[in-house]
Amino acid sequence: MAQLSELELLKASRNPLRVIDDIYKEALEGIPLKEEYIGLLKWYGMYPHINKDGLEDKKYFMKRIKLVDARMNLEQLRVMSEIGTRYAKGLVDFTTRQNVQFHYILIKDLPTIFDMLNSVGLTSRMASGDGPRPIMTCPVSGLDNDEIYNVQELLKSVDTYFDKNDERFCNFPRKFKMGISGCGHHCANHEIQDVAFTAFKDANGEVLFDLSIGGGLSKSKQIATRAKKYVKAEQILDVSVACAELFRDNGNRDSRSKARVRHLLNDWGIEKFVDEIEKILDYKLLDGETEPTITSFENRNHFGINKQKEAGLSYVGFATNSGRVPGEHFVKFYEICKKYNAGGIALTATQNFVVYDVKDEVVQDLANEFESLGYPYKPTAFRARLQSCTGKEFCKFGITETKEYAKDIVLELEDRLKDFNEDVAISFSGCAHGCSQPHIADIGLIGCLMRYEGERVEGYEILLGGNLQGDNSRLSQKIGVKVPSSRVVDYIVSLVEDYRKDKKGAIRFKDYLASIEPANSVTDDE
């Protein structure tokens, strides 16, 4: 096939998904991947690995699989575990957007992988790229006794609409992240989504959704703004499309650093943004001055054995260690679920997972087998809310290695602080982009290079005091401290010990961390 002409490249940029057909056909014929295709592969969840010199390695790719409702049923889990062991060298990561990432994927294996995914109704289409990303939701929607509203059908209708209308929505100024959740624990983290709908019950018991706009992390981080509008369930698709159109048509296309919904919101203000939504809708949304009661971040989990709505069934929430699951363990996930005839697994927003539709009479046995494999259903404080990005092992922006490093850190903390049981969210990020969300963690660690004992070494800049709780959310702050990688455990232990000696009026460890003043008037922009 000849090199793409300028016209063909222009067409591809308008709908990059179409180019995948050519990649697929050429992979079947053994034709090497063309350089101009590399950037387009991200619309199918693929990014080049980096090599030992820190440059993109066009041989191997990371491949992200899109889970529309955060779940994999038993057959999907079987296929995913096969991909992980046969094509990804056994390296499988769970992400903060409730997706699965495989590593070491070769282009020549794409046709087989696509066929395997298609056979069980899975896809990597629009798992990444400058378009609508997979929608955040509660992993046990429709199952949990405490949920406010089952959003399964809403979620699928919105996802299907964007997928079927890819000509209109596949090429935004940048990625577009949404959340739709009826969770009573608010586990979908609506405060950091571009657009989010959070269920609550009004004084009359009617279920409505609180609309929030313009959240997001990375370098230009900010907490979403409440639109002070309530949305009915049947209006969610309309409002989602309206917000997507506004971002597509008005988002900044001159600077990728400014190409997010939050920047458009900041330019316009929330009143104008809502006015523009209502112009497209051609109707007014319900006024919503009062924010619903929102759960604090440390209580947004589904750990342990929990009864489902359907009598005789339970789900069990488990913790990973830094979100990485070895391929052989992924196979064991399937084998254990099959052994006990469970429904499958669902991923959480904290790189953990839930096994659902487990019969009550075998649920304890299933929980014990997963725990024996290394996935506790009653995790320690350090493991429950630990998050980590892929770091420099695979990411071109990474300064430090994070995944395997973080796994060892947790084991050391569990050993040295056996009796510590307060809630604490710890996040390791290999660079300032903060994909592991250090900016909302109690203890955020951002990779850097630093001088220590006369040498230039890998280290972490410390951020403290992040939390999500609606309008009371707070971003973590730099405190003017950098710690070499070899001393991170000592530093965290010292924080706990200082807290035990003098809590300075704080009731909880997380509040103590938030009260620590930055050294030398450090600001978050430095």
**Arithmetic mean of pLDDT:** 91
Shape: globular
Largest sheet: 5 strands, antiparallel
| Helical run tally | 15
Helix-and-strand structural type: alpha+beta
Cα gyration radius (Å):
23 Å
Total number of strands: 20
Structural summary, described in words:
The protein is α+β, with helices and mostly antiparallel strands and 526 residues long. It has 15 helices and 20 strands. It is globular and about 60 Å long. The longest helix is centred in the middle third of the chain and has 15 residues, at 236-250. Residues 1-13 and 521-526 have low confidence and may be disordered. The strands form 4 sheets. Strands 1-2-5-4-13 form a 5-stranded antiparallel β-sheet. The protein has a 5-stranded antiparallel β-sheet with strand order 3-14-15-12-11. It has helices at 6-14, 19-28, 74-86, 110-119, 152-164, 166-169, 236-250, 261-268, 270-281, 327-339, 363-373, 381-384, 403-416, 488-501, 509-515; strands at residues 46-50, 56-65, 71-73, 91-94, 100-105, 178-181, 195-201, 207-213, 225-231, 286-287, 304-307, 313-318, 324-326, 344-347, 353-359, 386-388, 426-429, 443-452, 455-464, 477-484.
